[in-house]
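FORM 7B: Structural annotation worksheet

SECTION A. Query
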Amino acid sequence: MIRILIADDHEVVRDGLRAFLQSDTKYVVVAEAADGEEAIAKAVETEPDVALLDFSLPFLNGLEVTRQIRARLPGTEVLIFTGSDSELVIEETLQAGARGYLLKSDANRYLIDAITAVAAHRPFFTSKVTEDLLKGYLNRPGQPASTLTNRERTVVQLIAEGHSNKGIARVLNLSVKTVETHRTSVMRKLNFSSPADIVRYAIRNQLIEA
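SECTION B. Predicted structure
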């Protein structure tokens, strides 16, 4: 039996996935989460075989959740399940430790295959995702995918969601001074002059939903 955690901020999506998966006795949904913090907590509590994560989760996005789950639970594999086909998002979640990447538009055809593959510690990508990865590699040979670090991108998301430096420090278990340092670094690297620039960047790069 494959034990699954579902993390998506839309209840109707979680309900649909749970009903679909549990129609087969080989799969059991052991936990659900509506945001990134809850996803990490539920993963640590239940130790699922597969964490099925939307990328655009509130508080902590799929990138940071993937990184933390893989660091804390080496036996849990992560399958990113999202509507985003951004080359940057695909590359960064895989670098963070995700074992597979599935577009929501492909769920009907590939969800079971994807979960079965990653539960067996095998990678899973559709041909569309593979093409996007290859295109990104060819377009940026030897170049980093982003000027921001993973932690800086998480800080950008939280700023765009309206969190204060103190609130970000609590979510990420950092000091307020460290958060301020990350914020200053983001503004400098991206040549931003206001928080509105950060919000626009977060929307454009699908760190938050518009």
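SECTION C. Observations
The two ends are 38 Å apart (CA to CA). The chain has two domains: 2-139, 150-204.

SECTION D. Sign-off
Analyst initials: ____
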